[in-house]
Write a structure and sequence with these properties.
One of its GO terms (biological process) is DNA-templated DNA replication. The protein is α/β, with parallel strands linked by helices. Strands 2-3-4-1-5 form a 5-stranded parallel sheet, covered by helices on one side.
């Protein structure tokens, strides 16, 4: 698993808590996608499992380290939804609880990692709550979640919350320069579109997603002067929510530009498009457009078995009507 330089400090802080006897048995890590929280958990887990720890490091030689390296340690548990499913049900939690109350097979620590606690159904979260309230000896829980606010409040209250913040932009840009040949404007844009998470920014800069984002920008520019429904081919994909985020950030940048916020822009590689939006659409229309697209994104993310094409078509028609109603020609 990849290790990232911005994880060094939080890793040391977490290990020192264990060394000083101050670690809580249930840790809830809140991090944006692309911050490397999985790598942080893996490093912490290896240290906890190691039988011959060397300060802040696991030895890498003992039997437990070898089992962890092979991903076959019997006392390390990963609890996630089955492939192809988005929900983690109560049966998996109950099965885990039964295993935890037995003595560890290697005679050491037991670690449970839930990569996405947001997948827990309400019943599963309540079942896990009981296990967290009465944990077995030498058992550590690490839950990761992008939006902890969506978890049950009772579940959050049983955990110590740990926020993994994005590094400084200058630090992240320096790291990106060592990983990609993209120019500074593209790296800056990708980083800001990714909420400052460097690994997510690097993934966005890969040829396929970056080409999709550039095509969306060109499609928006063409759609403003021709037909907004032509944007459908750029939006109607499995990652529609992300593509709507790209569109929303362009609208937000246009609002910033109107308020002389040039230094705070996200899409620094697409200034002509930002200026076009800012000059063509009044602030009230940009604001309403942004609200519409964010509601559309939330619908796609939260409604089960939603008809994506129908939702996007409806939104594009609504947006077109909004822009027509406020165009200079219509006003005459």
């Amino acid at each position: 698993m990849n290790w990232y330089p911005w994880l060094n400090v939080p890793y040391r802080q977490l290990i020192e808590q264990h060394q000083q006897g101050r670690a809580h048995h249930a840790l809830l890590i809140q991090a944006q996608p692309g911050m490397g929280d999985a790598s942080l958990v893996w490093g912490l887990s290896r240290w906890l499992m190691c039988q011959q720890r060397d300060g802040l490091k696991s030895c890498g030689r003992c039997h437990s380290c070898q089992l962890m390296e092979a991903s076959t340690h019997p006392d390390w548990y990963k609890l996630a939804a089955e492939q192809g499913k988005s929900a983690l049900g109560i049966d998996a939690v109950r099965s885990l609880a039964e295993k935890l109350y037995h003595r560890s097979q290697q005679g050491g620590e037991k670690v449970v990692w839930i990569p996405d606690a947001g997948q827990l159904t309400e019943a599963a979260a309540n079942a896990l709550l009981k296990t967290l309230e009465e944990p077995s000896a030498n058992t550590w829980f690490v839950l990761c979640c992008h939006q902890p606010g969506r978890l049950l409040a009772t579940l959050r209250s049983r955990c110590i919350c740990w926020h993994l913040p994005p590094p400084e932009e200058s630090f992240s840009l320096k790291w990106l320069q060592s990983q990609t040949q993209k120019n500074l404007q593209e790296m800056t844009t990708s980083l800001r579109l990714s909420g400052g998470a460097p690994a997510a920014a690097l993934e966005l800069l890969n040829d396929k997603p970056w080409s999709a984002r550039q095509a969306l920008c060109q499609g928006l520019q063409d759609g403003l002067s021709q037909d907004l429904l032509s944007l459908m081919k750029h939006l109607n994909h499995e990652d529609a929510a992300q593509r709507i985020s790209w569109l929303s950030m362009l609208l937000l940048d246009a609002l910033k530009w109107q308020q002389s916020g040039e230094m705070m822009l996200t899409n620094v590689d697409s200034l002509p498009l930002v200026k076009q939006l800012a000059s063509r659409l009044p602030a009230s229309v940009l604001d309403e457009s942004l609200r519409q697209w964010l509601r559309c994104r939330e619908q796609l993310l939260s409604v089960t078995s939603v008809n994506r094409e129908l939702v996007l078509t409806d939104q594009l028609l609504r947006w077109e009507q909004l822009l027509i109603a406020t165009s200079p020609l219509q006003a005459k």
